[in-house]
Amino acid sequence: MKLKEGFVTHQIQNTQVMIATGDAAKHFNGLVRSNETSAFIVDCLKSETTEEAVIDRLLEEYNVPREVAAKDVHDVIEKLKSIDALSDTIPNEK
Hints:
Blueprint: E1 2-3, E2 7-12, E3 15-20, E4 31-34, H1 36-44, H2 51-61, H3 66-82, E5 86-87
Antiparallel strand pairs: 1-5, 2-3, 3-4
């Protein structure tokens, strides 16, 4: 999965904001504000990845139990899916 083209992020102090531009704005015309953890997850989703890979990266960055990281990643992914911000492509296995 990957953040769809047209969803743009910008960092303002400790908050990341995301808006939809171009064709993406036809489906979502709001603003998404993310805290540090959510912003990290969104940044991971800027390139092709899997939910498990994002969980692993989150665990490398933060000292939290795997269950907590998995729930955080899942919640952010579900929110992004609800605004049609994620592609459903599967990364190539190499």
